Amino acid sequence: MTQDELKRAVAAAAIDEIKPLLGNDTVIGVGTGSTANHFIDLLGALRHDFKGAVASSQATAERLKAQGIDVFELNHVGSVPVYVDGADEINPRLEMIKGGGAALTREKIVAACAERFVCIADASKRVEVLGGFPLPIEVIPMARSYVARELVKRGITPVYREGVVTDNGNQILDCYDFLIEDPQRTEADLNNIVGVVTNGLFAARGADVLLLGTERGVERIT
Ligand code: 5RP
């Protein structure tokens, strides 16, 4: 199977996973990226079975609307029973690196509100130790150089993702050359640098369920 076929397979598995949670009042959280896009495309067939969705990016909001799914502001939604999203890397504790698509801050906010986080990923995303994928950090533009210097002090090599402006009007630094042995501590430490909006470690709030697309089929890991 191609990587794209594996992504579609886990998106289909996520539809089965969330179906029991859907009802007239249900608003679900929807992530960003190519795997989440497969999920959105399949979700369209269920649009009459639930109230709508909260989107983790402008791109996701547009794709949901194209499927006829109502999109709600998070501030107008009381509860989010489930959030479905992809990942750039995920470890055995279901801690993740996210933000390859620059949507990390809104993804983290929706994930924080959700009762359950269902991660959908093809097998290439599964790692023992996070850090092979460069960790994205969203920064306030005027703080970019300062944050970069603070990262260098920590032995990290930051690279400015040129030409990218997040949905929040901010910039992204991608962090190379470090393996993340203690994701929760690193997540908190990096978030403490003044000017950081958030970083792409999802460790304090990891996934509850991983649907992993492999050649043997979709594995459900909790
Ligand atoms: C976007 C993300 C995505 O979930 C992550 O980049 C995975 O993307 P894809 O499903 O395209 O592999 O965090 O900010």
From TrEMBL:
| Residue numbers annotated as active site | E107 (proton acceptor)
Which residues of the sequence carry a binding annotation for substrate?
Answer: T32, G33, S34, T35, D85, G86, A87, D88, K98, G99, G100, G101, K125
**A GO molecular function held by the record:** ribose-5-phosphate isomerase activity
Q: What is this protein called?
A: Ribose-5-phosphate isomerase A
Give me any GO biological process, just one. Answer: D-ribose metabolic process
Taken from the record, one Pfam family name reads Rib_5-P_isom_A
Q: How does it assemble?
A: Homodimer.
This chain's source organism reads Modicisalibacter xianhensis
Which keywords accompany this UniProt record? Isomerase
Isomerase as a keyword of this entry, yes or no, is yes
Name of the gene this protein is made from: rpiA
Query: What function does this protein fulfil?
Result: Catalyzes the reversible conversion of ribose-5-phosphate to ribulose 5-phosphate.
Q: Which reaction does it catalyse?
A: aldehydo-D-ribose 5-phosphate = D-ribulose 5-phosphate
